[in-house]
Amino acid sequence: MFDPQAAAPAMTLAEKAAFLTGATAWTTPGLPRLGVPPLTLTDGPHGVRKQLPGARLMDLDQSEPATAFPAASATGCSWDPALLAEIGAALAAESRALGTDVLLGPGVNIKRSPLCGRNFEYFSEDPVLSGELAAAWVRGLQDGGAGACVKHFAANNQETDRMRVSAEVDERTLREIYLPAFERVVTRAQPATVMCSYNRLNGIPASEHRWLLTEVLRAEWGFGGFTVSDWGAVTDRVAALAAGLDLQMPADGGPAAAALVAAVSAGTLPEAVLDRAVERILRVTARLTGPRGDSRPAVDHERHHALARRAAAGSAVLLTNEDEFLPLDPAAGGTLAVIGEFARTPRYQGGGSSQVVPTRLDSALAEITAAVAGRRDVVFAPGFTLDGAPSPELLAGAVAAARSAADVVMFLGLPEAAESEGFDRTAIGLPATQLDVLRAVAAVSQRVAVVLSNGGVVATRPVTEQARAVLEMWLPGQAGGGAAADLLFGAAEPGGRLAETIPLALSDNPSYVNFPGAAGRVRYGERIYVGYRWYDKVARDVAHPFGHGLSYTTFAYSGLQVEVPDPARPAAVVRFTLANTGRRAGSEVAQVYVSDPEASADRPERELKAFRKVRLAPGESCLVELALTERDFAFWDEQRRGWTAEPGTFRIAVGASSRDLRLTAEIELTPPLPPTPLTLDSTIGEWLAAPSGRDALMAALAAAPGGTGEIVIDDSMLAMAAPVPFRQALALGFAAIPSGGEAAFLARANAGLGG
Ligand code: BGC
User: 72, 420, 562, 709: which has the fewest C-beta neighbours closer than 10 Å?
Assistant: First the structure.
């Protein structure tokens, strides 16, 4: 094993420059002279996409077989960090078996719009949920000996013009919405690498964004791994390295290294900048390659398939279930009609860099048939084709099958061509042909359940209006068919809760008028009001709220207690009891939301700050305890450029969705506010509120031409004067700087602030 400390100083300038760019599409150069092996990086994140020898970058379907786990839009709905850690561990085993070192994931970008073509690769519209799940995945992966690559840093929330577009986002919005998931993963799971995104952030390419890559990522969050470009994201290698982008991928044949050597020779780039980047890559290389040596552990693909099946069931969201229509009785007798092409041609993963060649692929039709074998007859009708072309014949076949059956299960969803990496969707409806078939089937059967497969959100109202039960399975991975059978007949329970709101209409979405932007810019005009933060703020009706999902059993929440050990320090412990009041075992996701109704800044109606998934047997109950920290009460204070938890009343709500709050409590917090110094631009109201401001203000009013020593400010005068900046009071002649001058006056006004 090489010594990373010793290797860097022994490298020539040319070697260092070459070390900072890929040697191939997927490997770093390594340095045989010093015994430094190359690192292999592969996609990610839902399975290992190790390309076959000779495959080109764009040959997305030429890779070694690997388990296709459910996509992140599914596992995001599991709200189950332990499950994500298990998947991470399985991915580590497959990575190591295939001889790869870094898996390019997880993707923790926030779902800003339902249209983002890559939403299936992201967990949630909420940063706490995204960050918690991603951190668990990274821990599982890295404990298993592989390295993670958190992506795409940052503000990469659309595919349209993704390589050029500038995301125009204010700092508060970045801090509260788009950065915290990255922050959580970095601070809690220490990922080996972070991938910069393609887009610009406020005009600067993410690959050259010093504030992102160095100030925030390293100085503030303490990131200790190396940064890597998204594939082809670097256009100015020298600027990128100087900003903190360590490794450029993929291989470029030499120009990047040559540019670095030239810049060092010309004196425009210190060689120490290369040293630092080289050292970071060496350290990660030593950590990942040292323990593994040449060993390639065997993988139990059967076990991973079973895990993928459990994960798909644990992520499926039961949106509606009239009169407990599901689960169906596998032994009830009566024919079961399975309708929809997806039942035999599953839509199980998304297109683009994350697609893998699965080790095997379940079909729901085969799994359902096996589940009821010998007990119920199954008839199948495809109903529609995946190209969306209407077919009267297939429609008639579906209606005939439904008419002959006691129960109908329909498999609907988005075909592959509808969503993928590389482009955004333009609408959220299901294909019209599928809805036509659904309506025709529902006209002849009162007993229809629908199973949905789609990566991004689809409009569900046209489906829930026709079907007795709707099960959203997202892109459930290679074992989705088996999981669907488990769920339909109650061998498994739907463990998912929505990680994103399903709106009634696309135009309800807060980013609607600002997505995907134009002329190279996309303004995040909705600011912090993303997803439920918007829908709840404006009380907009939605199809299904954030956090929603039914179970086959019922749960009761009781006994909320919120303990505040010291009101001066914003922190609390939330305790409540959760009981399974139904007849079946099941899991519930208890969600804790915090509201700050007295905030000086505008804040969302409520924000998710903690959650716990609990599995309970019928009649069983348990005490749930969740801690809230200072950050959970704070907002990003633009004036102070920091997190501020203000004194006042906070509301803590516990429930089963952002719209199904079962318990609430109020607490008083009295944290001291860091003082804001008065300036001439502070308002009269601010002067009056500051400790020494009132006296100084009175002196200034008295010093005005015609001013008297005694001034009484009554309520109506105060209401009018409070918003007036002191500078304007001077201009209007109501006040004057007393003798002694401005500096002395301001010093007096700010006396006691400690500078
Ligand atoms: C994607 C990344 C991916 C990389 C390598 C890029 O186009 O944005 O997510 O990891 O390609 O395939």
Answer: 709
Q: Compute, in angstroms, the gap from residue 230 CA to the centroid of ligand 1.
A: 6
For a mutational test of ligand 1's pocket, the pick from 157, 197, 231, 234, i.e. the residue with the most ligand atoms closer than 8 A to its C-beta, is 231
CA 262 to centroid of ligand 1, rounded, Å: 29
Cβ-based neighbours of 490, under 8 Å, separated by 6 or more: 326, 327, 328, 552, 584
Whole-angstrom distance, CA of residue 39 vs CA of residue 26 = 8
195 CA → ligand 1 middle, Å: 9
Taking the centre of ligand 1 as the mean of its atom positions, its distance from the CA of residue 455, in whole angstroms, is 18
Binding-site residues, ligand 1, Cβ < 6 A: 43-44, 104, 151, 230-231, 353
Look up the pTM and report it.
0.95
Q: For residue 568, with 0-12 CB atoms within 10 Å meaning exposed, 13-18 middle and 19 or more buried, which class applies?
A: exposed
Distance (Å, whole) CA 736 – CA 26? 68
Helix or strand (DSSP H, E) at 321 = strand 317-321
- The answer to whether residue 61 is catalytic is no
Q: What is the pLDDT of residue 442?
A: 98
What residue spans of 531-681 are helical by DSSP H?
Answer: 532-537
- Atom number of ligand 1 nearest to Cα 121: 9
Separation between Cα atoms, residue 177 and residue 109, nearest integer Å: 10
**Closest residue by CA, ligand 1 atom 8:** 230
Q: Does 295 have pLDDT greater than 90?
A: no
What six digits make up the tokens of 182?
Answer: 């990255």
> What's the CA gap between 420 and 455, in Å, rounded?
9
The catalytic position among 126, 230, 632, 637 is 230
Quote the pLDDT of residue 595: 98
Note the helical H segments in 377-419. Answer: 392-403
Flag whether pLDDT at 754 surpasses 70.
no
CA dihedral of residues 514, 545, 644, 638 (deg, nearest 10): 10
Going by alpha carbons, the residue nearest to atom 4 of ligand 1 is 231
For 158, half-sphere exposure in the C-beta direction (CA atoms, 13 angstrom radius) is 29
Q: How many CB atoms lie within 10 A of CB 754?
A: 6
Position of tokens 């002191």?
726
Range list of β-strands (E), 447-490: 448-453, 469-472
Phi, psi of 544 (to 5 degrees): -150, 130
Please tell me which residue, 711 or 92, carries the higher pLDDT value.
Answer: 92
Residue 354, classified by CB atoms within 10 Å of its CB into exposed (0-12), middle (13-18) or buried (19+), is buried
pLDDT band at 755 (very low <50, low <70, confident <90, very high): very low
Which residue's CA lies nearest to atom 6 of ligand 1? 231
User: Higher pLDDT residue, 654 or 704?
Assistant: 654
Tell me what the pLDDT averaged over the chain comes to. Answer: 96
Q: Measured in angstroms, how far is the CA atom of residue 657 from the centroid of ligand 1?
A: 33
Nearest CA to ligand 1 atom 2: 230
CA distance 79 to 72: 11
3-state secondary structure of 207: helix
Q: What are the pLDDT digits (tens) for 659-700? A: 999 999 999 999 998 778 899 999 999 898 887 888 899 899
Q: Is the pLDDT at 572 greater than 70, yes or no?
A: yes
The total number of residues written for the chain in this structure: 755
The SS3 of residue 485 is helix
| Contact partners, residue 66, CB within 8 Å, separation at least 6 | 47, 48, 49, 50, 94, 98, 356, 357, 358, 359
